[in-house]
Amino acid sequence: MWRALAYLVLLAVAAFGAVWIADRPGSVTVVWNGYQIGTSLSLAIVGVIAAAIVLGLVWAIVRGVIGLPEALVRGSAERRRTKGLSALSRGMVAVGSGDPLAARRYASDAERLLGTEPLTLLLKAQAAQISGDREGAERAFQAMTEESETRVLGLRGLFVEARRREDEAAARAYAAEATRLAPSVTWANDAMLEAHCADTDWAGALETVERRASLGLIDKPVAQRQRAVLLTAIARDKEAGEPEAATERALQAVKLAPGLIPAASIAGRLLARRSDVKKAAKTIEAAWKINPHPDLAKVYLGLRIGDSVRDRLWRAETLARISSWDPESRLAVAQAALDAREFGRAREALQPLLAEHPTARAYLAMAAIEEAEHGAQSGRAREWLARAARAPRDPVWIADGVTSQTWEPVSPVTGQLDAFVWQAPPSAIGSASGTFEPAGEPEVPETPVLALATSAGAGKPAGTGAPVDPISAGMTAAALPVPAPATAIAGVKRS
Fold it and tell me: 229: which of 23, 62, 138, 472 is 20 to 30 A away, CA to CA?
């Protein structure tokens, strides 16, 4: 619209100029070299305009003739570039569709037509990868590292190839170089974090997490959780030799993640060791509110070494009130009551568990109560043991299909940080109901339950009459004397 309006304005100006000149006639005389040429003003203006047009056409023809070779060269280069981009595009499609022959052909065409462009090198490397030509892929990625624009991309390709041939030293070197060149590259930061964790270099891993958080590569809650896990790992390593440093790290971890069970357990133990029982109790209680766990109960009940069994029972009931009688609280109260030889209170604490969702630990606790009160050969104790053999498994630490009785900072399979979660493993045998309905006389060995507790790691000699500790023993189906296979995750190695 604006262009049409401008055209009309120019046309109006030209018409006005023509009328103005026509209203004011005159003559133009040119004298040159003895000649005199006279004409009207209108014809002189038309002649000047025509001469300008002719000169412009002549100049355009001359410029065209002079620039013809350059235009031909430029046109040829443009056609080559167009063909090269087409080959590049088709090569990428061939790589994505998994066609190695077409990918190699188009990669060769793109390199011939475009030269060593970044995308040409990338296509060449990917074509070599899907063709199984690892050496060719590495040569292409190495060529990419020689250009500043593609250096980090080439390092990533070399990193992947090093991982494929299981050369961890080279992979770490490529990741470290990429981190130096581009600190915000996600894959390099992840690789460095994994490398530090594999070497148990928790301080280096902590620095990597701090860098990732400062660059905004991970969310703030995730960064806080990872810091807490790494600080807990540092505290665990320093607990025996440097208790003060370990306490500081554990308290930092608790501040970042109050519900992190290992951090609270370590902090509670170390604070109790230096007689700061009040702070230790508050730390455990805060973690217990978020996530009741047998490790927390064990630390809380043993905050003061000289406490009587009734003091320990009082502490267990405090945990129960804090968590509104969570199942872990009931198990802790039952164990403390058993230690105090208050068998009625122990049974009362376990009764809701047996009625709702009984697990192996609840049945083992009942077996321990019967044995402590009526002897190792008690029929009821043997019955509870048989029920435990068929009961659903209790929670354990699980990461990537691997179960463990103890927490670890990283997965032993993938090396992922903070991979272990506390949950019940899937049962390899059908979950049993809460009722005991034997199809006949159950096959139970003569080994007393106390001896079984000792073999499971309860830490008390067999046959001494000491009660079973189902919290600290952490019995699994593998410790039970039954012919059925132990509950486990199929194909999983237990730690």
Answer: 472
